[in-house]
Amino acid sequence: MRRTRTRSSHVVEGASPKSNLGLYSPAVLRCRRRPTAGHKEVRQPVTSPKPTVGLHHAAYACADLEATNHFYEDLLGLPLVHTEVEHLQEGFFRHVFYDLGDGSCIAFFDLHGVGEKPDWSSSLSRPNGLPVWVNHFAFRATEEKQNEVRARMDAAGIKALMDVDHDWCHSLYYLDPNGIMIELCRDTPGFEPDPEQAHKLLNSTERAADPKVVTSKTATTQLG
After folding, report:
1. In this protein, which residues make up the domain named VOC (predicted)?
2. How does strand 162-165 pair with strand 212-216?
3. What is the pTM of this model?
């Protein structure tokens, strides 16, 4: 088997000047409250006393590389920072990386005869009989970034699938060209970590909060 590699660009160190999206993880977990006079309390990330594992990149298969690049680079504003071309078996694949602005990336495989089945699907949920919102990728975003992306998406004729106020965060959802749901999530102001309660609810059917109001492009419904 002959393997060659072509690199068309290089991974940048540190934050990208073009992107201010980051991976959303409700557990930038260790937080403390800092009250401010006359304002709602805000929560500040606190460094974990133990070493943590962070995201390097998350990778997915893409059905259409050109459409994927347009969606992530032009509409979401994530710069393409690294591309690899690998020859494998009798085919090849491209591996492309988009910078999230914090040193981590979302990446995609463009596959060409490297073992994929003829009827393969890039969608993560629907082929498995799941609602489209189950498997998704959430980006941390500011309100300004949400509005910027919404404006570009609207101009391109792409409407948000859902706009959800979760009480502790506000989320804007879109479906990418591969059938993968992406979320732009901003803390409002985030949640207070409570490992004890979280473990208690692992085996509970108790609703922890009221159903959330969901505004979609077709209807307003409730989650939960």
Report:
1. 54-187
2. antiparallel
3. 0.72
Residue ranges covered by each domain of the chain:
57-113+122-192
Nearest CA to 170 out of 152, 190, 151 is that of 190
Report how far residue 160's alpha carbon sits from residue 60's, in angstroms, rounded to the nearest whole number.
21
Range picked from 13-27, 66-80, 182-196 for highest mean pLDDT: 66-80
Per DSSP, the three-state class of 60 is strand
159/173 Cα distance (integer angstroms): 9
Mean pLDDT, residues 146-154 taken together: 98
57-113+122-192 placed in CATH 1.10.10.10: no
